[in-house]
Amino acid sequence: MQDFCVALKDYSDSKSAVFVNGNFCKDPKLVKAEDFFFEGLNIAGNTDNKVGSNVTTVNVDTLPGLNTLGISLARIDFAPYGENPPHTHPRGTEILVVVEGTLFVGFVTSNPENRLFTKTLNKGDVFVFPVGLIHFQLNVGKTNAISISGLSSQNAGLITIANAVFGSNPPINPNVLTKAFQLDKNVVEELQKEFGGDNY
User: Judging by beta carbons within 10 Å of its beta carbon (0-12, 13-18, 19+), is residue 68 exposed, middle or buried?
Assistant: First the structure.
């Protein structure tokens, strides 16, 4: 038993390392305070993009001391009317607190109900998104917004729905998406171009 398993970033010394939860453990004798430290969460992310948001993640990839601890963190910056588009975290529940601004948030339950739960959140309000469910956040204010999220995994994973469906590599056959979304094939192909996939 050990107190921690700091993720080893340099695998050249992995022959003597223990592999735990997707990462090699650093020799505990070589662990330093820096392995448990991350700086810069006070710096706003660049929201000058198509969706008007930026997510700064603090997970095992950026903070090796999180390995095996089952937690991570994210700062989400929103431009006015920016959104964190519908997405899911396959390996973690998310709890979000609004630091600045007003967000309209929600999640959808699994089939067959597909029930939508939404709420408008103001500064200091908290909302939880259950593991694996599709959810979103939208800044409904005329000013920037900031939120902080805690996640119940060292790496909760991220699947942005539109990117995954229309921007997969290689692209999903347009006939599949045409039938699934009940859309014209030209619309599907245009969405695939928009999200980075090539024609099938």
Answer: middle
pLDDT value, residue 3: 84
Q: Do 123 and 101 contact (CB within 8 A), yes or no?
A: yes
| pTM summary value | 0.89
Helix-helix angle 185-194:174-181, to 10 degrees: 110
Determine how many CB atoms are found less than 10 A away from the CB of residue 151.
Answer: 26
> CB neighbours (10 Å) of residue 60?
22
Beta strands at 116-121 and 94-100: parallel, antiparallel or unpaired: unpaired
| Mean pLDDT confidence for 40-63 | 96
Homologous superfamily in CATH for domain 7-160: Jelly Rolls (2.60.120.10)
Adjacent-strand bridge partners of 145: 78
- Could you tell me which residue, 21 or 165, shows the higher pLDDT? 165
